[in-house]
Amino acid sequence: MLASGGDGKSTTLNFINSLLPPNEVSHISLQALTASEKNSKNFSLAGLRNKRLNTRNDITDDFIQDASMIKTLTGNDPIYASVKFHEDTSFVNHAKLMFACNSLPEYRDISKGFARRGYIITTRGIKGYNRSEILKERGAFVIECIKAFCDQIKDQQKKADIKEWQLYQDEQTIENRKTWNTENDQVQLFLNERALPKGEVPSDFKRKYDTTYNAYTEWTFQNGVKALSKTKFNRQLREKGYKSTRSKNSRYWLGLKLKSDSGTMPKR
């Protein structure tokens, strides 16, 4: 859940927490769950065992160190978690992960498997609501949610083009995810700022690998971003649909033209 302070994020999470027994809810931060184990063991993961829900208020916008753990936690895969002063444990996570923040954390994993997992809901506070009346409706609220959930599954099962059911997403949620993914895809940000749209560039237009990477590293320096290696940069361009060719001495990107090539921005 994303919103400014005082817009009801904590209130919403606390209400959701109240719908389940306390022993089935954990409160581990996103950064703790995704901490890298390169230098030390991550003991936080074991806290998800036998939980149905994990919520945390006001998580920071710190960098997500190990985004692959999100895919493991939400992909029905077994987790091998370290337990302090005990043997490691193995389990499959069943806890839904819900976090509240004022600004979204950064990450480097741009795989589709990670990009599609985030549901970013914008919350807005309602002034003058009666909290006691809302709490009285908890039971009816849960029943209505279960009914709506079951109806959605039945509806999607009728559609032959949908292989797996999905949670409902409104336009704002979809746009929030798209924005978050773009803001964390530095190659796409570079293309958005420095390259011409594909539709405006002849498919046979050639641009050298080396000069393209140099333009990218210059852009990262100007924006205070750590540049990807040349291998990763080239792989991401290929994943974005750019094809390449080679001559005797050089390799070229096809259909990739920077604004500096056409004089729309100064060459550096």
Automatic annotation (TrEMBL):
It comes from the Bacteria. Pfam families: DUF5906, Pox_D5. InterPro entries: DNA_primase/NTPase_C, Helicase_SF3_DNA-vir, NrS-1_pol-like_helicase, ORF904-like_C, P-loop_NTPase. Residues 1-162 form the SF3 helicase domain. It comes from Lactobacillus helveticus (Lactobacillus suntoryeus). This is DNA primase. The keyword RNA-binding does not apply. The keyword Kinase does not apply. Keywords: ATP-binding, Helicase, Hydrolase, Nucleotide-binding. GO terms for molecular function: ATP binding; helicase activity; hydrolase activity.
